[in-house]
Amino acid sequence: MLKNYIKIAVRNIKRYPLRHFIHVFGLAIGITSCFVVFKLINFEYSFDSFHQDGDQIYRVNTMVDYGRMISISPGTPQPLNEALKNEIPSIEITAPLYDAGKLTVRSGDESKNLGVTDHVSYVDNGYFELFNYKWLAGEASYALDEPNTVVLTLKSAKKYFGNQSLNQIIGNELLYGDTIRAIVKGVVANHTKTSDFVFTDFISYSTVFNKQGEDNWSSLSTLSQMFVKLLPQQKEATLDGLAAVHKKYVSPENDWMTGFDLEPLQEVHFSSTFNGHVGNKKTLNGLMIIGFLILIIACVNFINLETAQAQLKSKEVGIRKSLGSSRKQLIGQFLLATYLIILFAIISAILLSHVVVIYFENLLPSGFHLNFFAWENIAFVLTVSLFVLFVCGIYPAFVISKYSPVKALKSKIGKRKKFDINYFLRKNLIVVQFGFSIVFIIVVLAIKSQMNFLLNKDLGYEKEAIVYIDTPRNGSFAKNSTLKNELLIVPGVDAVSLSFDELMSGSLFTATVGHETSGELEEVELQMKMSDTSYLRLHEVPLLAGRYFRNSKNEIILNNAALKKIGFGSPAEAIGKPLNYRGSELIVVGIIDDIHTRSMYEAVKPTMFTFSETSFNVNIKLASEVNIPATLDDLQKSYKKIYPNEAQSFQFLDETVANFYKNEFRLRKILFFATALAIFLSALGLFGLVSFTISQRLKEISIRKILGASIADILLLVSKEYALLMVVSFLLAIYPAWYFLNDWLSNFYYRISMPIGIYLLSGTIALFLCLCIVILHSFNAANRNPAEVLKDE
């Protein structure tokens, strides 16, 4: 019997190829969407899930008071390591980590340039106790006890020393950058599993202290982090210990550092990582919803077409029932036929999944791959196929199997009653389909509008044709000044400036300044930007009052927000007013308008600009109509004259600004693709349904033509029903779209107002698409010769 059912199913597929193509292709798109999203979620949650006792490993974060909110920074003061060891017995292992980033590497005698290494870190032996690495050479317990020692991954060891044996590699000296010498004390295997700890060279942590001497509690950098392993069931005790450490060691002058907290290792991937890829749970949840909705739209297509074309199977049902088939047997037969279609859809989904991954290659995280035949993937696809079988197969199977044999054999199935529940459900399913599609259209158009707003908004300064490059942390102001002079003589360069960081940056440095009010010293917290005298001029920041500062550490410039926060009155009134900063008097010499030094997620912060010789950043203004590639090449050569062993490269400020919104660009592209799929599937389903409906009404249309109806009358007759469905879809889509967009836009301090035009345009697009499909079929039917249609009547 099973063999017979399969034969019948195959024959039906051959007999109605268009209908089954729509089924297979639609379900393949839905299954592909769900599968790729599942793989992505599985991939994101797999990071660092393999470490032994991973549930006892935490990152220590610092809570920072930014004035109006408390933020969490993954950075910690460097002395915290010793304090945790001495003060908190519930901590079993401490592992400080300093991310040194990209460094050039040479042999110890400086005779060989061994290339650039992207991921260098400073750690101590605790790092290898905490995280699982297989040791190939050296001794894990004391390899990094002394300063100026290094442990390499096998990848780095082969890169630096070629085919030398691991024992020969141990004891060799390497030179990192210009100044850091390290003896190789160990080699570990490369990570084969997904991890955010992508470091390949591990220099002893004590080298950082010796070289940089940053042994103070007021220094905080996200590059310097702390990981700990707790004794079992000791999280609360450790939190109490961290509060005690903060109270004991962090002085009142550093009250912006409000405390320390613990973040589970499993959550690190979703907050701040070392490989530039941060997972986003909100995005993953959104993708999961999108994938599910696309699958549901595909299932709706299937149900609509199957129930609409039930008449084609009615005679088969009547004959089988007359020959003794039970309803249970008929349901089993139709479910088997449905599952056969689902199997074809799964095979198609395997191919489509690879196409989707190639299309989204730039948006997907590095290391992501499908591996379709892994056991968890097979289990997921089987689960989805059973879900699709239940959703798509149960209702049509029950509808078709309940037909009366007498009515079926007399071809009375499919004739509309005054109220046909199946027809009513099909109309509502179309409404749901296009409702989803309209939501997607509204969201995509609104996100595009917001992104255009962000990128085109006036920042208050010039961002075009400005490039910048980082300088070494151990570089002196004199050396950077020499670099500035070298860059100024490069053809095509208009201006050069030294600063602590670029004008729009994710970094935030704050300072507490005091001013006298009614004889009392009142303190306010300001963002602080440090630079040389040409920084604001280079970016063409206009003054509201006063002048730019000169080579004086006692002069500052305030923005308008700082002016209001301090309460100085007008810009002119503020000029010459003193402020107290760390016991020194600063004189306000200039006021500028509020410029955006951070992303549009937040309001412009009250900011002070001050002269400083601490510079880690060189800003360059290029002349107009310059040959950019040639000029960048000349700039790189000038940079290499001063820092020959550094591996930095120039970046454009406008690209940096755009990078603040890279997640939004990614979301827009994903939603655009999802919208295209939703519209395509909805249109595909509507195409099949209208095609069948029109074929059922050919006689009616022919009779109307004979009685004098024009083509326009027939088009209006058929179209108005579907136009009404589109209006209902549009009305149902308004609130979900508004809810999502309101939630998304709330992330931005500067945002568009929700324009009604986007909603109307989205509804118009759906209505136009629907009418195009309906009118196409109706027009062909209206032009049929009534004599051909009615010749058998």
Explain briefly what this protein structure is.
The protein is 50% helix and 19% strand. It contains 26 helices and 22 strands.
How many helix segments? 26
Strand-pairing-aware structural class: alpha+beta
Average pLDDT, rounded to a whole number, is 84
Distance between the termini: 40 Å
Would you count the extended β strands for me? Answer: 22
What shape does the CA trace take? globular
Spans of at least 5 consecutive residues with low confidence: none
Helix content: 40-55%
* Main sheet: strands, sense, barrel: 7 strands, mixed
Calculate Rg over CA atoms. Answer: 34 Å
**How many structural domains?**
3
Roughly what fraction of the amino acids lie in strands? 15-25%
Question: What brief labels describe this structure?
Answer:
single chain, 793 residues, alpha+beta, 3 domains, 7-stranded mixed β-sheet, 6-stranded mixed barrel, 26 helices, 50% helix, globular
Structure description:
By secondary structure, the chain is an alpha+beta fold. It folds into three domains: about 1-40 and about 280-450 and about 660-790, no CATH class; about 55-270, no CATH class; about 470-645, no CATH class. About 50% of the residues lie in helices and about 20% in strands. Helix 15 packs across helix 24. It is globular and about 100 Å long. The two termini are about 40 Å apart. About 35% of the residues are buried. The model has no long low-confidence stretch (mean pLDDT about 85).
